[in-house]
């Protein structure tokens, strides 16, 4: 959806096309052109009968705080007739955590804010990535009420991996394994594990025997490795019956998905995580719930090769 644009008002960027007469929300980050958030939110608003707009705006690292200050001075901010919230992508999630005056518990322990909502003249920060991961695994048929004492493996140790720790613990994982490049166990996920008092097993990509062992034992596997780095992953061919969620959905199928299929694993596409984190954002912005099933057809239409 596109707005009429009033970038000249309140010092907002001139290339920011936002509507002049209705509530709106945004996705910000760098890059942001590839974002499917406009599809999710636009479809949800239509489903809810709301005449809201949703736009994307590229912001580089270091620009979020100033941008939020400008939005806060915009007419309509206080009464909810202007900006209703922001979906925040990388590299701005750490800045969003700092910029928020009020931060929910999940965002604090994971160290990641992907959603900002106006709150009494300030900004409240939330993490809906956790809900996205939980919802995606459950949609794929994982029954956490019936599955007890299982191993979960996370590929990568960044911000999404930090959210993955909280999600997999919510799903009942009793053993959490993080696969990373550095033997020193550094990265956002390890820091989040300390804040959550979660014991984790660290395995490096170079430890081929250890990697093969934990992958064979895994019930759930979450890949948070960016698409550009997946080709170089030393993934072993193992007999895995795990459910594998790859946060990457473009390109599709990703190298991790191709590997997982070859191992006989069940696949959860990254767009399922996107749907569930998006509907959680919609609820924060609107106060109303939307059925994920109402979002899925439009989102799949926007993703190349989604039927493969």
UniProtKB/TrEMBL annotation:
Domain SDH C-terminal, first and last residues per copy: 270-300
UniProt keyword terms in alphabetical order: Amino-acid biosynthesis, Aromatic amino acid biosynthesis, Oxidoreductase
Alphabetized CDD domains for the sequence: NAD_bind_Shikimate_DH
Pathway: Metabolic intermediate biosynthesis; chorismate biosynthesis; chorismate from D-erythrose 4-phosphate and phosphoenolpyruvate: step 4/7
GO cellular component: a single term: cytosol
Classification via Pfam families: SDH_C, Shikimate_dh_N
Residue span(s) of domain Shikimate dehydrogenase substrate binding N-terminal: 27-116
Highest rank taxon of the organism: Bacteria
Keyword Protein transport: no
MF (Gene Ontology): NADP binding; shikimate 3-dehydrogenase (NADP+) activity
A GO biological-process term: aromatic amino acid family biosynthetic process
SUPFAM superfamilies, A to Z: Aminoacid dehydrogenase-like, N-terminal domain, NAD(P)-binding Rossmann-fold domains
Known EC number: 1.1.1.25
Protein name as it appears in the record: Shikimate dehydrogenase
Species the sequence originates in: Mobiluncus mulieris ATCC 35239
């Amino acid at each position: 959806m596109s707005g009429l644009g009033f970038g000249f008002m309140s010092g907002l960027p001139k290339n920011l096309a936002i509507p002049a007469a209705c509530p709106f929300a945004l996705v910000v980050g760098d890059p942001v052109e590839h974002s499917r958030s406009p599809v999710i939110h636009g479809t949800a608003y239509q489903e809810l009968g709301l005449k809201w707009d949703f736009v994307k705006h590229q912001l580089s690292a270091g620009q979020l705080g100033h941008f939020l200050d400008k939005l806060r001075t915009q007419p309509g901010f206080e009464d909810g007739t202007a900006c209703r919230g922001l979906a925040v992508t990388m590299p701005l999630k750490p800045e969003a955590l700092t910029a928020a005056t009020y931060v929910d518990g999940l965002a604090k322990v994971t160290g990641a804010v992907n959603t900002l909502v106006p709150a009494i003249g300030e900004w409240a920060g939330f993490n809906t990535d956790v809900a996205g991961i939980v919802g995606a695994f459950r949609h794929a048929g994982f029954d956490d009420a019936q599955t007890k004492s299982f191993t979960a493996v996370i590929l990568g140790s960044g911000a999404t991996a930090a959210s993955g720790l909280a999600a997999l613990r919510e799903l009942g994982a009793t053993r959490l394994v993080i696969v990373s490049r550095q033997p020193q166990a550094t990265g956002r996920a390890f820091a989040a594990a300390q804040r959550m008092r979660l014991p984790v097993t660290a395995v490096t990509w170079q430890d081929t025997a250890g990697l093969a062992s934990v992958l064979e034992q895994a019930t759930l596997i979450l890949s948070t490795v960016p698409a550009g780095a997946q080709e170089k992953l030393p993934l072993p061919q193992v007999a895995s019956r795990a459910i594998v969620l790859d946060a990457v959905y473009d390109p599709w199928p990703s190298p991790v998905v191709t590997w997982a299929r070859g191992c006989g694993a069940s696949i959860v596409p990254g767009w399922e995580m996107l749907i569930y984190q998006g509907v959680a954002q919609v609820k924060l912005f609107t106060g109303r719930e939307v059925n994920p099933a109402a979002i899925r057809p439009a989102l799949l239409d926007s993703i190349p090769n989604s039927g493969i």
